[in-house]
């Protein structure tokens, strides 16, 4: 009888831990911010661990000793240069996902999150630094900072990139 009670209490504790972890992640992903902001301001709102995740995604080396502000400055300088390389690794589906955040008319296009966007997908894009998440005016949104939108727009008609995206989508053979 005692074992069943212990087991039941353990399950209750695990459920509470799971709930607490989900709440923590939700707060982390959906911090309230006012848009628009510069890419630098947006990155400054991230934790140093989140900035280091972005750095690791791109394989940046010898920057772990940088202070947070210096790391942000480094990323603001380097990421626009790395977009082409990052896009060449993607398939057309990921590229089209990014494309929805770029608008010719509006520099900060926001996509209100649908149920289809789970935490794993949001985390993946946040770690690339290309798409960030926040809560704005009570709505959960994903968006691409305007500085990256400009770079993305210049690559839109790059024939070599489009060919690589098709190749990545269809495979090699």
Structure commentary:
With 173 residues, this protein is mainly alpha-helical. It folds into two domains: 1-30; 31-170, no CATH class. Helix content is 61%, strand content 8%. The chain is built from eight helices and three strands. A three-stranded antiparallel sheet has the order 1-3-2. Helix 4 runs parallel beside helix 7 (146-155). The protein is globular, with a radius of gyration of 19 Å. The N and C termini lie far apart (62 Å). The mean pLDDT is 84.
Helix/strand/pairing category: mainly alpha
Q: Strand tally, please?
A: 3
Biggest β-sheet strands, sense, barrel:
3 strands, antiparallel
Order of helices and strands: HHHHHEHEEHH
Percentage of β-strand residues: 5-15%
Distance between the termini: 62 Å
Average pLDDT value? 84
Helix content: 55-70%
Q: How much is the radius of gyration in Å?
A: 19 Å
Low-confidence stretches: none
Shape: globular
User: How many domains, as an integer?
Assistant: 2
Strand order of the largest sheet: 1-3-2
List the total number of helices: 8
Chain-wise SSE layout:
Blueprint: H1 2-29, H2 39-44, H3 48-58, H4 68-88, H5 92-99, E1 110-112, H6 119-128, E2 132-136, E3 139-143, H7 146-155, H8 159-170
Antiparallel strand pairs: 1-3, 2-3
Helix pairs in contact: 3-4, 4-7
Protein name: Rho termination factor N-terminal domain-containing protein
Summarize the structure.
β2 (132-136) and β3 (139-143) form a beta hairpin. It is globular, with a radius of gyration of 19 Å.
Search tags:
8% strand; 2 domains; 173 residues; mainly alpha
């Amino acid at each position: 009888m005692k074992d069943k009670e212990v087991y039941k209490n353990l399950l209750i504790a695990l459920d509470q831990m799971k709930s607490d972890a989900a709440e923590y992640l939700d707060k982390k992903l959906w911090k309230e911010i006012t848009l628009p902001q510069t890419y630098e301001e947006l990155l400054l709102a991230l934790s140093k661990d989140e900035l280091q995740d972005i750095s690791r995604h791109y394989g940046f080396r010898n920057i772990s000793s940088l202070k947070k502000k210096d790391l942000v400055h480094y990323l603001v300088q380097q990421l626009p240069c790395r977009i082409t390389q990052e896009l060449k690794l993607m398939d057309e589906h990921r590229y089209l996902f990014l494309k929805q955040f770029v608008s010719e008319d509006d520099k900060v296009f926001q996509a209100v999150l649908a149920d289809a966007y789970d935490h794993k997908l949001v985390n993946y894009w946040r770690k690339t630094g290309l798409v960030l998440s926040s809560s704005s005016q009570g709505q959960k949104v994903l968006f691409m900072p305007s500085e990256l939108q400009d770079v993305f727009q210049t690559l839109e008609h790059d024939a070599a990139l489009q060919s690589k995206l098709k190749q990545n989508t269809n495979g090699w053979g």
